[in-house]
Structure prediction request, 887 residues.
Amino acid sequence: MADLTVKFAGVTSPNPFWLASGPPTNTGGQVMRAFDAGWGGAVWKTIGEPIVNTSSRYGAIDLNGVKMMGLNNIELISDRSPETNFREIYEVKKRYPKNLVIASLMVESKRESWHAMVRRAEDAGSDLLELNFGCPHGMSERGMGAAVGQVPEYTEMITTWVKEVARIPVIVKLTPNVISVTHIAAAAERGGADAVSLINTINSLMGVDLATFAPRPVVGGKSSHGGYCGPAVKPIALHLLSTVAKNSRIPISGIGGIGYWNDAAEHIALGATTVQVCTAAMHYGFRIVEDMIDGLSQYMDDRGFRTIENFRGRAVPNVKDWGDLDLNYKVIAKINAELCIGCQLCYVACEDGAHQCIESYKESAKKNAGGFGVHVPRIIEDDCVGCNLCALVCPVENCITMKEVDSGDAPMSWNDRVRQSSATLTLPFPSGD
Amino acid sequence: MPLRETAPKLSPDQYEKNFAEISPAMDSRQAAIEAARCLYCFDAPCIAACPTHIDVPAFIKKISTGNLRGSAREILTANILGHSCGRVCPTEALCEGACVMHEKGESPIEIGRLQRYAVDYVLDNKIELFSAGAPNGKRVACIGSGPASLACAAELAKWGYDVTVFDRNELPGGLNSYGIAAYKLRTADSIREVDLVRQLGVKFRQKMVVGADISFADLEKQFDAVFVGVGLGETWALNLPGEDLHGVYGAIEFIEETKVRPFNEVEIGRRVACIGAGNTAIDVVTAARRLGVEIVYLVYRRGEPEMPAFAYEYQLAKQDAVSFLWQTQPIRVLGQNGVVTGLECVRTQLGSPDAKGRRSPAPVPGTEFKLVVDMVVRAVGQKPATDFLKAIKGLEVNPDGTVKINDLHQTGNAKYFAGGDCTNGGKEVVDAVAEGMAAARGLDAWLGAPRGFS
Prediction:
């Protein structure tokens, strides 16, 4: 049986699953129920000077009847006093000594204010601190949250202040609303951060009510930009996570679009030691962690991984700059005529949206149960560029697969070509993060 | 003269429950979920399978985006009777039968119900989608007001023709109003659909028998062309002894009773035998059971595999607990004092398949038996309206009594066009619509396509 315990910045967590700072960790009652359900840790809803929230606060994008593919919020930090929050942290830690409570903090950018808040959080019994330098809305206009996290110098300075007094590990939470997240991560590391977490929510406007022209979520006919999260943001989170993982030496807590154990496993494979979940818990409640634990254990057992460390970061070296990819590697599409249902979505996708490598056939030997013909398209293999689009649009599992073919040429990347061909004036492909 | 024994009367609520729509309307959430299931196939097989070639993925996409008006326009442009077709089409043999979801191992998209959802929206909200074309000065008469005539009339009206429909019945709509089991289509819904055609400026002259109330000569004088959409005539006789007894009905005539009278006033026996196993027979036996008949026999000369009714229709009859007597041939209607008391039958043996692949039945001597019934319904198909058709000079008929037409749907008399059951011998509503529209195009082409668009 796989061992899910992880050591994060010197502290042991029963499993890598933490609730992210947000509505699910607003109160001691919620956090205790979450621990009962199996969550290893909880990052408390950000504590600071109490604010006043709007009504309404959340907006969502549904897709083809699937609810909440993406969620956004214009909610701010805790609307309860630091006294109340710290008292509840103390009570929770007394009852759940093995589960981690991470105090998320946000205070005005004054050294003494940060010092005071850090001491109170430690006195309450917090296991770690998370500095909220990421909230993209409401607080940033007041010189906090993303206003700090978008400027490397501020990030480094405040991290330094915190580290001057902190005795417990300090996590800096990074905002994705920057040109390069690695610069901010490096600044946090320079400031002495023991770990980073990413991503915070992405700046967004959820939509417009076309009857009233009020943006969503509507507050008296108006709205404001807010933080976007949920399943839709996972690819963005994974990309930013991978760039930080490549460039950073401190542990990472992965956040963004995690709803299932496999999402978590992907974050771990890209370098995260723990993962944080918010939207999925807001959608389905705390019990989602049961399958996260079970599914991850099963996966690890199947793959022979005894601990998280056995596979953590395994995908990081495979994330390359485009210029280093092998241009002589080739796949082409294969259609399994037995499985094909004749919808021809692959045909029209390739014809209109890609590279015109699929032929449509009216005649087909295959008939459906009602005696109607099933039109199975055919791949023009010589023309197929191996783009994946047909396989992506195909509604039948395993019907279209991409088969590796031998191009007959030795591996050759764009950068190889540039290096070998001194006659060309082409610049090397820029390496991005 | 009363039947020997009648079915017990049910409460008004029970009748309504029994005849409630078999395929209830979708609410917006159901429609959204079902529309989202559609894969939006390229060159979709459902379009090809529909006789009127409604662009099914296009109208379903419009439902999923909330564009219900556009969705209904898509449907009704291809088929002005999209409302009734959404309810009565044998979709499992047409669009839904062709749906790729079958191959995926999933249930097909509920195209019929989605179609109805979109069309109901414009009918309920009285949204007018079409308008009459600019008058082109041409006048066309349509004889009969069933699906073929309605489709032909609507198409012509959109092009600026001045169209008048002549119909012998009190209500317009033809078989849609009079000949389809009430739990599939209510007369009121059929009339609502006729109003779509009326909105295009088509005039309806009900209770007008062409040849009697207005002569063919007058018709030809007043109109530039005539469309014949008279459907078929009465039900074929069985030529059995006792067929003239009270309590022997034709199927179409029986269904009509259930459509024009309150359910509790329909004359119905306690035990009923229906002869024949086509789709109309299913309408008869299911309607009979829903009217409270204690036992309904469906009597058919051939076996279950030879049954002409669609599988879906057969299921309906099974669900209504109809008793099927396969390989059973009626030989005599039994009676007393002029009223039906039973049906004498004989078992049959099936011989080798004929040219159509159907095995011909032969009675097995000594297997005669009697059913105790109070009513017998003949559901063995309708005769062509031969007498009426004969009155049109130059109009030719095929050996089976259907009207002979060319590619333009034009008859032997150049001024007369035809479509629907009178040319195809009896098919679905959607086939009649397709033919009515084709005849409109043919008629328009023959007159030199003087289309006027407003």
